[in-house]
Design a protein that fits this description.
202 residues; 5-stranded antiparallel sheet; 5 helices; 57% helix
């Protein structure tokens, strides 16, 4: 060891500086390969992992946002379905409808002489069934018009046609008319759950 030190001390300055430079280069290279490069590789790996996590978070956030939007759309659709079933119920509910028509007739000042529900009919390919109701009432023109207006404002769909007005008579200082018409209501037909003709035959 002493021999090497003596040689270094006695060596020319160029050799000394060259050796020092070589030592510095070696230390720098060793520091780069054993310390700096592993750190940079580790940082790059961490940055790549961070990018992956950011993308994953953005994707999941978008899915969550879309899920909330779909839930809101589903709530709106369910509400609209409930409103539609009020206008076009699945059940006949003829007794309830007749009671409503009777109440509207009384409030309008009409005397109801006849209310006769007819058989339900379903057209080919239709998703609804028709329930006709023949009615005969008596009252003045204003009372009949008021009745028809109230029926038109009902939540449940009721179409009134074949309106006939005749038999005008003077009663209690007002002209009373005899009116007959056909009130048609509808109900929703679930074609998926309805039994087919073939299954009925079996």
């Amino acid at each position: 060891m002493d021999k090497y030190l003596d040689r270094i001390v006695k060596a020319p300055p160029a050799v000394k500086f060259g050796g020092l430079a070589a030592a510095v280069v070696l230390m720098t290279a060793a520091n780069f390969f054993f310390v700096i490069q592993p750190l940079e590789e580790n940082m790059e790996r961490l940055r790549a992992e961070q990018r992956r996590l950011d993308l994953d978070l953005a994707e999941k956030s978008e899915i969550a946002q879309n899920l909330n939007e779909r839930r809101r759309e589903m709530d709106v659709l369910e509400q609209r379905l409930a409103e539609a079933l009020t206008e076009l119920p699945e059940n006949k509910d003829v007794e309830e409808l007749l009671s409503q028509l009777n109440d509207i007739g009384k409030k309008s000042g009409l005397a109801i002489a006849r209310v006769e529900p007819g058989p339900e009919t379903v057209g080919g390919g239709d998703f609804f069934a028709r329930i006709p109701i023949k009615m005969q009432v008596s009252g003045n023109y204003h009372e009949i018009a008021m009745f028809l207006q109230e029926v038109a404002n009902m939540r449940r769909i009721v179409n009134v046609n074949n309106i006939k007005l005749d038999g005008a008579k003077l009663k209690n200082e007002k002209v009373v008319l005899q009116s007959s018409f056909l009130a048609t209501t509808f109900r929703f037909v679930n074609t998926k759950s309805a039994p087919s003709k073939d299954s009925k035959k079996k």
